[in-house]
Amino acid sequence: MRILVSGGAGYIGSHTVKELRHSGHEAVVFDNLSAGHRQALGGSELFVGDLADPGSIRRCLEHFRPEAVVHFAASIFVGESVSAPAKYYRNNAVGSLNLLEALVEGGVQGIVFSSTCAVYGEPRFLPLTEEHPLAPANPYGHSKRFVEQMLADFRTAYGLRSVCLRYFNAAGADPEGVLGEDHHPETHLIPLVLRGALGSEPLKVFGDDYETPDGTCTRDYIHVQDLARAHVRAVERLGEGWAGEPLNLGCGREYSVLEVIRAAERVTGRTIAYQVHPRRPGDVPRLVADNRRAEAALGWQPEWTDLEQIVRSTWEWMQAHPQGYGA
User: Fold this and answer.
1) Catalytic pick from 11, 88, 140, 221?
2) For residue 275, which phi and psi values (nearest 5 degrees)?
3) Contact partners, residue 299, CB within 8 Å, separation at least 6
4) Do residue 113 and residue 152 come from a single domain?
5) Is 114 in the same domain as 165?
6) Mean pLDDT computed over 96-109
7) 46, β-bridge pairs
8) What domain count does the chain have?
9) What is the reported pTM?
10) Do 32 and 165 belong to one domain?
């Protein structure tokens, strides 16, 4: 299949592009490079454009004529979304609307959407299933929820097939060491913990008084390679005529902040200093996915289920690329 990958120069996007090519598909990347990296493209064709510019989307579609789209391009920082909500509604919601209108105009039949478990908000029960009420707690989650609604409406009105993949905590790096996580700023826990192993300032642990086994928050970490495989399978299923549905993508296991720190110490052989700070507003004690629907719909299961393996792949990438893609 010919696949257009918006935001394909980013962290999860670049891993998915590589997996698409490995699976025999043709992929082109649409990216404005505001957060992505040319070095992550691995020889894939890049069309520099912006979802804020409908003309650039149309030109890309006319040039490449994809059969389907995998849509990653978005702003992703929860905290920033609270202080700058206009940016998130503009980039995530309006940008996605521009893309969807161009897809309908261009006759593209399917789209895989990079969504998030943030659409659920405060968990009412765990593990989270796709039937959990959608009640986002921040503008980032609201912007993703809005796109999910647009996709449902576009399916009804225009027949655009779609699947919304709701990620839990993406982590890890390409097993071959070619790709990794290079965010500016970095907000994900595992690379921040590993920076502590490199001698940076002590890691901030926000709260140690939650109702969890060790008092720190627990999260469901899913390896980026497993995410990439799920995207490939989802776009293939859409190509087979599947109508699509929202699916959770998680490992189905939860690990605490302190467990991540201890795993990183075992992987690196170094002591990692940390300081406990007060809880952050909006942090929930626990998050863990029920991913059985994704397993049934995609014939997919996470392969990287051990925390230490996930941490090790990140550490190996950081050791080989001390300056990220700038190394």
Assistant:
1) 140
2) -130, 135
3) 233
4) yes
5) yes
6) 97
7) 29
8) 2
9) 0.96
10) yes
Contacts 24+ apart (CB under 8 A), 83-90: 85/139, 88/139, 88/140, 88/142, 88/143, 89/139, 89/142, 89/143, 89/146, 90/52
First-to-last alpha carbon distance for the chain, in angstroms, is 33
Do 89 and 210 lie in one domain? The reply is no
Q: What is the DSSP string of 151-181?
A: HHHHHHHH--EEEEEEE-EEE---TTSS---
- Res 327 pLDDT > 60: no
Q: What's CA 261's distance to the chain center, in Å?
A: 22
Q: Model confidence at 317, in pLDDT bands (50, 70, 90)?
A: very high
Q: Which residues, at least 6 apart from 62, have a Cβ–Cβ distance to it below 8 Å?
A: 106
- Indicate whether 26 and 101 sit together in one domain: yes
Unique residue bearing structure tokens 């776009």: 235
Q: Is 210 a catalytic residue?
A: no
Q: 295 in a domain, yes or no?
A: yes
Q: Please state whether the peptide bond connecting residue 185 to the residue before it is cis, i.e. omega within 30 degrees of 0.
A: yes
Could you tell me which residues come within 8 angstroms of residue 306 by beta carbon, excluding any fewer than 6 positions away?
none
- What's the rounded Cα separation, in Å, for the pair 206 and 245? 35
Does some domain include residue 184?
A: no
- Does residue 130 share a domain with residue 215? no
Sign of the dihedral through C-alpha 256, 257, 258, 263: positive
Beta bridge partners of 114: 165
Which class for 322: exposed (0-12), middle (13-18), buried (19 or more C-beta within 10 A)?
Answer: exposed
Q: Are strands 218-219 and 274-277 parallel, antiparallel or unpaired?
A: unpaired
Q: Which two tokens stand for residue 191?
A: 């690379």
Amino acid identity, position 143: S
**Residue 34, C-beta contacts closer than 8 angstroms, at least 6 positions apart:** none
- Domain extent, residue 123, equals 2-170+222-249
The reply to whether 176 falls in a domain is no
CATH number of the domain where residue 261 is located: 3.90.25.10
Nearest to 5 by CA among 14, 143, 80, 91: 14
189-236 per-position pLDDT tens digit: 999 999 999 887 899 999 999 999 999 999 999 999 999 999 999 999
Residue 180 lies in a domain: no
